[in-house]
Write a structure and sequence with these properties.
alpha/beta; 6-stranded mixed β-sheet; 38% helix
Length: 195
Amino acid sequence: MKTTLYLARHGQTQWNKVQRFQGQLDSELTAIGKQQSENVASQLISKKIDLIVSSSLGRAIASAAICQQQLNAPVMSLDSLVERDLGHWQGKHVNDIKNDKNYHEILHQFTELKPVNGESAILCGERIYQALKSLALSHKSKNLLVIFHGEALRCLLARLGENSTGNAYQLFDNGCLLSLNYLHQDNQFQLVEQL
């Protein structure tokens, strides 16, 4: 028995466009972001999505609402799927932070290091992992679309052993889609593919 989770990054936002860190702050979807959300839904029409789950941040909720128009599945949001808390970096432009001596470790590696008042990659990865495991256990044999965030996705994949040296901007375009199975008999996740 398995539960399939289609993991999507929300559509492009105003702050994504200008490379400004959002973290747990928010900004509106752009016209491109709305189109990217429609594209996510289009790719999944044949998959018979049973439930759309989004982070409780506005950009993910907006993307989920756009997907719902095509997929005709119920939508719920979870606080546990919000983006990594980037602490005092939130609201700042990437170029203003790149010179921080911890920038590379915090945003490219999977460690306990965190921005001031923020969340480490390890804690973020574990939070997302537990949220997805809970969803899988309560929706056995279902197909779920989960809309959340780039840095949270990077941390999750690192938690699953899929390490990379890139940051979320380099690894995951807005509206990207990955497929993850939860294998109930093995009590573990299996990354299937990037769609």
